[in-house]
Amino acid sequence: MRLVIVRLRSPCFALGLFGAGLAGAAEAHGPVFSPAPETVWKGGTEVTLGLHADRAAGAGEKEKTYELFLEGKYGITADWEIGIEIPYARKESGGDEVNGIGDIVLDTKVQFWKRDLPGAQYKAAAFLKAKLPTGDDESQPRLGNGSTDVIAGLATGYESRRWYWFASGVYRANTEGAGGLEKGDRQFLNAVGGIRPVLTEYDEPDTVLMLELNWERAGRDELNGSDLADTGGWELFLSPVFWVTYRQFAFRGGVQVPIADGLNGRQATSDYRARAELVYHF
Amino acid sequence: MNGILRTAVFAVSLLLPVAASAAQTQYQLRVDGLACPFCAYGIEKELERTDGVESLEIDINAGTVTVTMADGAAMTEAQASRIVEDAGFTLGGFEEVRTQAGNKPE
Questions:
Q1: Fold observed for domain B23-100
Q2: ipTM > 0.90 (yes/no)
Q3: CATH code for the domain of A229
Q4: Ranges A15-29, A42-56, A169-183, B73-87: which has the least confidence
Q5: Number of Cβ pairs closer than 8 Å across A and B?
Q6: Domain range holding A52?
Q7: Minimal Cα distance from A244: which residue of B?
């Protein structure tokens, strides 16, 4: 396939090529930057109000994104949930600034395996998401991809009164948007370990600390069928995260710190990503 | 004397039904998979919606849920199992504890 060198303004935007690529990955009591096998109980509803911020710099570009999102999940059964995420973003790049609704995400998750032990639980789930072209893909920088993208993945994990671990793999298939631009497909692999330092009672605040290792890779973007230089590659992040819960409320957050990368050509690389969420279920 | 005795027996017979009707039933559920208080809220929510449940107490460290029923109300093990499974857990044990109102389990 012919490699085309085309300098697009902010070619790797949409949150710096990778950004919050998992769109609503966070689960109420799982990792912050990667998916978990948890589902809401039957008939339960979970609402999340979150803020995501990231910055990327390099190749003469400096890009910032601040995204406020509202997410809702409903438990159809104890093993099957559906959800929706609505983002509102503000993006800055190369002196340009834009804000508005981003790409809305619809999702469903099925927990297909579970093993319950006294004080511990093993789980595994499969999930499917559709990222809809609701964000403006003609703004500068772009608020949306202009395409319907499909995200599928598997997540598994273990939780006990003291220790946690999670692992997940995700594939995002991007389709062609307006103007013949197709973002490269993405793959994500994640590994997480966590600990509950203090065992409290049921009606007391509860704190869990975790460390995530997040690897992301993207294929090259294509413009009218030709690969674009300076796109695609991989990044590796180390992400300390936490959650504090009390009854049906949870506050969680963390930071993704890039520790290695193999990006193609000249691109802005991630400086950091940060996320904070307030969760309520009823 | 016979009159006094008859009066005493009559008074005691009036007290007995009152004592018997004050009995409440408690159940102790052992719940497997109970690791996280935030997740356990689902059990509290499901039980609160169950007819006849007067109060409940979750011991997250012991992995147990103690359910106190209203006077005359009862819960079956199958019912408890369904409630726990709908909350995302597994019933590991079900024990009935009968107690007098206001007293701790015998």
A1: Alpha-Beta Plaits (3.30.70)
A2: no
A3: 2.40.128.130
A4: A15-29
A5: 82
A6: 3-281
A7: B38
